Write the structure tokens for this entry.
Amino acid sequence: MSTVQAAATVMIVDDDPTLGVMISEYLEGQGMKALSVASGREMLRAMETHTLDLVLLDLRLKNEDGLDVLRELRQRSDVPVIIATGHRKDEVDRIVGLELGADDYVTKPFSLRELLARIKAVLRRHASDYSRRKNSGITYQFGGWKLRSRTRELFDPSGEAVPLTKGEHALLIAFLDAPQRTLAREHLLQATRVHEDIFDRSIDVQILRLRRKLEADLSVPSMIVTERGLGYAFTLPVERY
């Protein structure tokens, strides 16, 4: 397993505590970190303090509709999601879940080896999204600035080159791919965690470093603004070519 996958944090949302413990212990035995909660409400609260790489969401929660939980999660985050259904006949739920943005599904009862294989596959696909964008050769323009994604070259409105670290480059691309939208901290951390040599996991610190290179006045940032309680938004329109 790659370093990125081994270091992944997986949240299990299932109201069966025995199953939650079993999956957690298995994933931790594979070098991952695991958190287990019994409801969507608990999941959303935990996301305020934990950075997640993947969510395993049971659609058959006792007091909640798992599809409603998935809808709300997708409004807040792009974290990869594997949905679990309790019956093979639940084809409609699986289809709706995938249409709502789930990345994969498993049907109970499932083997832990199968679950691990699906988690690894989803994490690989998610991590490669940034690599594809980085290597696609796209050039971004915004407010007189220009970013060449393949070469990691950033130029300010005067044409002067502004150096970017790998983390700053990944973070900026995450913003430029979703301009004028609020992005959760967890989503932004996902964008930078694909690099094994980035050890600072505080998104606020990374945002500050990027602002220092982009903003005219750090005391009143206008390009990357804070949406209190929600995350950050890149305010400028972006052109791609």
Notes: The longest strand covers residues 9-13. Residues 194-201 have pLDDT under 50 and may be disordered. The chain is about 40% helix and 20% strand.
